[in-house]
Amino acid sequence: MVEYMFILGSNWLLSIAELLVYVRNRGYEAVVSDHSRHAVILDFKEKLSLEEVVDMQAALGGCYKVGRVIQTYNIIIPTNAYPTNGKPDREALEIITSCPWLPDLWQRPRGKKIKFGVSTYPIIDGKAPIQYRRFTRGLDDTIKKLLLQKGARKADYFAYDEPDRRKVKRMNLALWPKTIAKNNLLTPPNAEILAVFTQKNLYLARTMVIYDSLLQQYRDESRPYISSEISTSPKICRTLLNLAGARPGDTVLDPFCGSGTLLMEAAMLGMKVIGVDINGNQVQGTKANLSWFGRDIGEQIRFDIIRGDARNLTNLIRKEVDAVAFEPSLGPVTKKKPTAKEAEEIIEELTELYREALAQIAQVLRPDGRVAMTIPVIVSRAGPVSMDIKEMIKGTGLGIYRMLPADMIKSISDSDENLRISPNREVLPERKMGQVVQRQLIVLEK
Ligand SMILES: C[S@@+](CC[C@H](N)C(=O)[O-])C[C@H]1O[C@@H](n2cnc3c(N)ncnc32)[C@H](O)[C@@H]1O
């Protein structure tokens, strides 16, 4: 068994669900052996090649970094070495600072100029009796000292970046992907060391691949048609594609395609795409975006974008599709909370729209195909109003595909309720603080 560490997106549970679907869908044998709200440790039966890991990270919407685990310590060791209260325990400190993994990572440091950096991910932000900042600096200093002792010409580390500007209180002890890319920290002999704390252990890993934030920013900002009012985030689009089991070469349908964000992500992953939208402007926008993307990468993209109603798909599409992924209209965009009755009426209307669309989707979907979509939860003045899923899928020929399969979750850090992964879920939330329309993700199968 070989352990890999995945640094998760902000919706950690959804990121894990996506990862597990991806892993199973691609035929890997792996289980979650440990996790925190920032990272998951997956135990793979076989070693992965660098290429496999690169493909995996690039395909996932909720994974920032992937590394191979190089050392595991019981959590007692760092807790005693860097306590928030009382004196550090010398023995524990020595265990960490002896860095037994170092000769494996840098086999011949002599004469080399080495740049590196430690990125630390706590269990839950601000919780746990460990001085994370001191731990991170301490490990950076120790690695530098050991490398110089072993004859490195230079050993310079990059310390964690500034705190998160959006959430000032959030501790950030991890290097941003931009810093890592700019300083070539993934090119040997340089390295980034990931330090992940869970309830039970501290894991160290060497980063193999990171999220390409510059490429994503370029694509988001350069595409010709942006419709920010309705656009779905590219990350959620990737997650939906993975949950729907879409693979390179597959034909993917988005029956509510809007500005085509999901279809662009699918095209980037080598899928053939079909889009439908009732609004002519959106149809033109999606076509412009996909043509631009094709020119940008210098390849002919295969797409078919049709103006029409998702409730009438069988008259619009003659082809069988392998996977369906989308964000439908989630109701009126409003900042004002509706009354419970108003919310119920909106939900009822949408349930009917989705049911009719899903019945048509089931007819164009290949026999064992899946559908991944978002559904709304409307926060009314009297509290949240969600969909009756049974009602939504009644008579469509689709059933619920449960996420987070129990047989893949063997995490040893599951005792805190803030960390619990309850398996076999029908829906997973995708919350945005303060929004009237919240979302859930659901996967259906034929
Ligand atoms: C939330 S938006 C999709 C956003 C899209 N994922 C993107 O990133 O641009 C929903 C879209 O569904 C379209 N729509 C609404 N009702 C429809 C229907 N009955 N059939 C097809 N499209 C519909 C709307 O025009 C809108 O563009």
- The separation of the N and C termini measures 34 Å
Beta-strand segment tally: 17
At CATH level 2, the architecture of the largest domain is 2-Layer Sandwich
Q: Briefly, what CATH class of the largest domain? A: Alpha Beta
- Distinct compounds present: S-adenosylmethionine
Unreliably modeled segments? none
How much of the residues is beta strand, in percent?
A: 25-35%
Question: How are the elements arranged and paired?
Answer:
Blueprint: E1 2-8, H1 12-25, E2 30-35, E3 39-44, H2 50-59, E4 63-74, H3 76-81, H4 90-97, H5 102-105, E5 113-121, H6 132-149, E6 154-157, H7 177-182, E7 191-197, E8 201-210, H8 213-222, H9 234-243, E9 251-254, H10 261-268, E10 272-277, H11 280-297, E11 303-307, H12 313-316, E12 321-326, H13 340-364, E13 365-380, E14 383-385, H14 389-393, E15 399-400, E16 427-430, E17 437-445
Parallel strand pairs: 5-6, 5-7, 9-10, 9-12, 10-11, 12-13
Antiparallel strand pairs: 1-3, 1-4, 2-3, 4-8, 7-8, 13-14, 13-17, 15-17, 16-17
This protein binds S-adenosylmethionine (SAM).
